[in-house]
Structures are given as C-alpha cells and as structure tokens.
Write a structure and sequence with these properties.
66 residues, mainly alpha
C-alpha cells in the first residue's frame, strides 16, 4: 500500500472512532436502529458510500495531477 492509501485508512479509522468515543449511547442506538433496516436499503446505502468515496478519491487524484 502506498502512503496515500495508508493515510486514507488512518483517516477512516479516526472518523469511525469518533462516534463511539464522544457519543457512545447515541452511537449504540444508531447501530441498533440500523440492524432493523431491510438488507436492500443497507445494500444501497453501502453502495452509495462506495461511489461517493470513489468520486472524492478521483477528484483528489485529478486535482493532484496524478
């Protein structure tokens, strides 16, 4: 993995850790409510996050002149 990917991974871990660290009760309720959602909705939500992440990555890559 190159340093850009490791930096991205580190940022994801930091952002993912903020919820349970700062607002554990709210975070737990959110996770519990997500378990009640239909699989199809979770599938679409996850796909949307992947697409958004790839768009941001591509925009940054183009902006850097890569």
């Amino acid at each position: 993995m190159n340093s850009t990917m490791l930096t991205a991974l580190a940022l994801v871990l930091v952002l993912e850790g903020l919820g349970p660290m700062l607002l554990p009760r709210l975070w737990r309720r959110m996770i519990l409510s997500m378990t009640q959602l239909p699989d199809k909705l979770l599938h679409r939500f996850g796909g949307g996050l992947v697409v958004a992440g790839m768009v941001i990555y591509c925009m940054l890559h183009i902006h850097r002149g890569g």
